[in-house]
Design brief:
Blueprint (H helix, E strand, L loop, with lengths): L13 H21 L17 H23 L8
Helix pairs in contact: 1-2
């Protein structure tokens, strides 16, 4: 039986995981900012659900987070064999 190096090799590097966590944080913040604004009484309209934070900022943060995720996945892992 020949010896092969069966080391635990991660698919992504440290830099990739850093960008993945940044993307996850952006998406989580976007979903948190989008929540709320409802009314306790269904017969009363609350115009707070259409404010700038829920309509523009939160979806932009979610899209930015997805952009970080795509960048993290497509970026090459830095090999340090030198």
């Amino acid at each position: 039986m020949s010896k092969t190096s069966n080391e635990n090799k991660f698919i992504f590097g440290k830099r990739n995981y850093k960008f993945m966590f940044i993307g996850l944080a952006c998406m989580a913040l976007g979903f948190i900012l989008m929540s709320g604004g409802g009314s306790d009484d269904p017969n009363v309209f609350n115009p707070e659900i259409f404010n700038w934070r829920r309509i523009r900022l939160a979806p932009a943060l979610i899209i930015l987070g997805f952009g970080f995720q795509v960048y993290a996945i497509l970026t090459r892992k830095e090999d340090k064999k030198a």
